[in-house]
C-alpha cells in the first residue's frame, strides 16, 4: 500500500444516487493509505448511496458543500459514478468549475463508471482517451474523446492526467492507479 500522508483528495457527488462501492471503496482505501479525503456534495448532511442504481445502500456524511469548496487545496479530484448521481452532478455549475480548475491547473482527475458525464458536460474529454460504463461511449465520442474498454485507463493528453475505470468490478486497479498517481 502506498503512503499518501499529506495528500488531499476531493470527492464530488450528489446527495442521492452515487453507486455505493464507487464512493465507499476509494474512501476507505485512500484514507487507509493516509490521504485526507473530503466528501463534497450539493447539500450538507448525508449522501444516500445506491447499489446497482436501484437498491438503497449505505449513507455517508458530507464534509463540505460543493459550492464552498476551495479546489486549490486538493491534489486530486475523484468523481464516483452512479447514473442518478452523475446525471445530476453534470449539471451542477460549481462541480463543472471545480473539474475545469483541476484540468486547467494540471492536477489529476479520477472518475469511474458514469462519473465521466461531468467531464463530457464541461468539454474536458475532448482529445482524451478514457473508459467508463459502456453506455457513455457515444457521449464520450460525441464530445471528442476516444472510448476504450479496459479496467483502467490513464491519459496524459492535454497536459493533465485523467484516470478512468468502467464499473465497480474495476475498483482495485482504479484505486491502485490513483495511489500510483499521487506517489509518482
Automatic annotation (TrEMBL):
Keywords: Glutamine amidotransferase
Superkingdom: Bacteria
Domain DJ-1/PfpI: 8-178
Family in the record: Belongs to the peptidase C56 family.
Name assigned to this protein: Type 1 glutamine amidotransferase
Originating species: Kocuria gwangalliensis
Amino acid at each position: 500500500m502506498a503512503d499518501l500522508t499529506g495528500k488531499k483528495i476531493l470527492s464530488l457527488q450528489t446527495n442521492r444516487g452515487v453507486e455505493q462501492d464507487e464512493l465507499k471503496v476509494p474512501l476507505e482505501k485512500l484514507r487507509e493509505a493516509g490521504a485526507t479525503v473530503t466528501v463534497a456534495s450539493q447539500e450538507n448532511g448525508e449522501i444516500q448511496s445506491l447499489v446497482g442504481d436501484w437498491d438503497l445502500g449505505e449513507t455517508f456524511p458530507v464534509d463540505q458543500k460543493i459550492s464552498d469548496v476551495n479546489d486549490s487545496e486538493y491534489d486530486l479530484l475523484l468523481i464516483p459514478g452512479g447514473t442518478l448521481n452523475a446525471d445530476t452532478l453534470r449539471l451542477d455549475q460549481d462541480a463543472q468549475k471545480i473539474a475545469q480548475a483541476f484540468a486547467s491547473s494540471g492536477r489529476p482527475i479520477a472518475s469511474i463508471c458514469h462519473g465521466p458525464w461531468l467531464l463530457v458536460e464541461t468539454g474536458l474529454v475532448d482529445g482524451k482517451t478514457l473508459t467508463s460504463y459502456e453506455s457513455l461511449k457515444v457521449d464520450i465520442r460525441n464530445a471528442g474523446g476516444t472510448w476504450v474498454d479496459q479496467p483502467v485507463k490513464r491519459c496524459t493528453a492535454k497536459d493533465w492526467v485523467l484516470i478512468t475505470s468502467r464499473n465497480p468490478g474495476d475498483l482495485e486497479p482504479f484505486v491502485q492507479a490513483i495511489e500510483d498517481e499521487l506517489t509518482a
